[in-house]
């Protein structure tokens, strides 16, 4: 019997599908007990891995407890990083890679990311994001996608999977069946994908098909209500999993997006969502990012108990749990075998060269001394957990006398512009924005600032769409990672274009 009186066999069946998060840089006692009782693995978030040395030590502790534990994290490059959350990613993300559009480069960048994950003891990367960013107003995918063209996204998705797994780290294509043609962030509410099955096959499913053909060991289902599958989000929906397995031929492990996200947290609720996800065909349940040590323990206990109760009541068949656990073990076995093979050499100079090549520069963008910087970015990116301050920080370090300010969150456009421009007279002006086209008020403010200061340099860190046409002097970085910022700062300081 287990400590709480549950038969060990049932507890092991349940634990074998769980991927909890936890708080801190050392595994808490409840987590170690769960590992001993057959836990599938863990997911690292930024607070677990503040630096590479700490990450490697944490992984070593967990592997000493059980060598076949799955250790997973999100390391997309660009805007989304866990290992480099404090400093920003040193790798260009998908947006920049898609803009360069060289699949050999994408494969090599993914291999380098895999090299870093290997060193940190992370065997499953919850990447790449293979969504086709078909809706320009998408609030959560955007620059995390390779682009809006399905064929381009497909070829880079395959290249990323190949590169990452050549470094001995399992890939996970996400967010099935496609989060790109949505206008709602699933961290907050349920997005609806209105495409019919024919459009899904021609557009959204193409990159998943390519990633699967490239050998992706894992596939992540999104909390997306897709028209062909009815009312349940894909992460809880057997129709979505059936399509992935029977039509696309996927035989690896299906993992859910984080089950603490707003799209499923209110309805059906965390515990019921865990049960529905396994019934829907998921093999691994990503439980999410806990806000505290207490929340982490409660999250795991709630998921465990919900599955145990459903199993005992006959709602959740033991065969379904056993099948899910088998696929999770197959993934773990692949990771263990891959870890035994030395990774290929790392290309240290490649990421900056790619970020330089991805830049789109127009007009005179060289800044004079003591510039004035206005940052229009006010929305938090829920996927990255930040507003990405790396460009501002690097410019401040490189240009003594720089003044950086934001804008008032509300008020008439002219008044907001007046406030933002205070102190900018006779100084070079740089305005930083992410994707202002998604916010009419932000676009209006950008127009007002440019009308008053036509000499301003506008730096866009997301997809430019038509917004960069508003200004004569623009730099588009296609990402907010540290390496994107480094490439932009070089140009703003008067550097010349570099090949890559």
From TrEMBL:
For the Glycoside hydrolase family 3 N-terminal domain, which residue ranges apply? 37-327
Superkingdom of source: Bacteria
Task: List the Pfam families hit by this protein, alphabetically.
Answer: Glyco_hydro_3
Q: Which UniProt keywords apply?
A: Glycosidase, Hydrolase
Q: Would the keyword Hydrolase be found if you checked this record's keyword annotation?
A: yes
Record-level Gene Ontology MF annotations: hydrolase activity
- Name the residues that span the membrane: none
Question: Is Nucleotidyltransferase tagged as a keyword?
Answer: no
The family this protein is said to belong to: Belongs to the glycosyl hydrolase 3 family.
* The name this protein goes by in its record: Glycoside hydrolase family 3 protein
């Amino acid at each position: 019997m287990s400590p709480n009186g549950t038969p060990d066999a049932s507890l092991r069946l349940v634990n074998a599908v769980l991927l909890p998060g936890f708080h801190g840089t050392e595994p808490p006692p409840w987590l170690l007990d769960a590992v001993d009782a057959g836990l599938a693995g863990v997911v690292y978030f930024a607070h677990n891995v503040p630096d590479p040395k700490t990450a490697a030590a944490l992984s070593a502790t967990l592997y000493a407890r059980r060598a076949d534990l799955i250790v997973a994290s999100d390391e997309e490059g660009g805007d989304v990083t866990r290992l480099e959350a404090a400093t920003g990613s040193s790798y260009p993300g998908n947006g920049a890679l898609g803009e360069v559009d060289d699949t050999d480069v994408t494969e090599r960048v993914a291999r380098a990311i895999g090299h870093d994950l290997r060193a940190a003891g992370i065997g499953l990367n919850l990447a790449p994001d293979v969504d086709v960013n078909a809706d320009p107003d998408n609030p959560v995918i955007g620059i995390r996608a390779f682009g809006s063209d399905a064929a381009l996204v497909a070829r880079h998705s395959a290249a990323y999977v190949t590169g990452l797994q050549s470094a001995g780290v399992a890939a996970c294509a996400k967010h099935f069946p496609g989060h790109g043609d949505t206008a709602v962030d699933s961290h907050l509410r349920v997005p609806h994908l209105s495409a019919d099955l024919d459009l899904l096959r021609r557009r959204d499913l193409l990159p998943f098909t390519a990633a699967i053909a490239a050998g992706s060991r894992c596939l992540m289902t999104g909390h997306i209500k897709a028209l062909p599958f009815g009312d349940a989000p894909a992460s809880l929906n057997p129709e979505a999993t059936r399509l992935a397995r029977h039509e696309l031929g996927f035989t690896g492990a299906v993992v859910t997006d984080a089950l603490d996200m707003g799209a499923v947290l209110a309805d059906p609720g965390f515990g019921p969502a865990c049960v529905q996800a396994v019934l829907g065909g998921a093999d691994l349940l990503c439980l999410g990012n806990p806000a505290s040590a207490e929340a982490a323990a409660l999250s795991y206990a709630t998921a465990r108990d919900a599955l145990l109760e459903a199993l005992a009541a006959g709602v959740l068949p033991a065969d379904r749990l056993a099948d899910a656990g088998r696929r999770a073990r197959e993934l773990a076995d692949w990771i263990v075998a891959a870890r035994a093979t030395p990774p290929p050499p790392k290309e240290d100079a490649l990421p900056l060269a790619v970020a330089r090549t991805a830049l789109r520069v127009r007009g005179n963008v060289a800044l004079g001394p003591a510039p004035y910087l206005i940052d229009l970015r006010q929305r938090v990116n829920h996927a990255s957990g930040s507003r990405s301050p790396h460009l501002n920080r690097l410019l401040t370090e490189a240009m003594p006398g720089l003044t950086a300010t934001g804008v008032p969150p509300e008020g008439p456009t002219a008044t907001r512009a007046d406030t933002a421009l205070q102190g900018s007279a006779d100084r070079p002006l740089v305005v930083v924005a992410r994707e202002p086209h998604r916010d009419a008020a932000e676009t209006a403010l950008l127009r007002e600032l440019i009308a008053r200061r036509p000499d301003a340099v506008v730096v866009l860190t997301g997809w430019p769409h038509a917004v960069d046409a508003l200004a004569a002097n623009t730099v588009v970085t296609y990402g907010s990672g540290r390496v994107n910022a480094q490439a932009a700062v070089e140009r703003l300081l008067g550097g010349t274009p570099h090949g890559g």
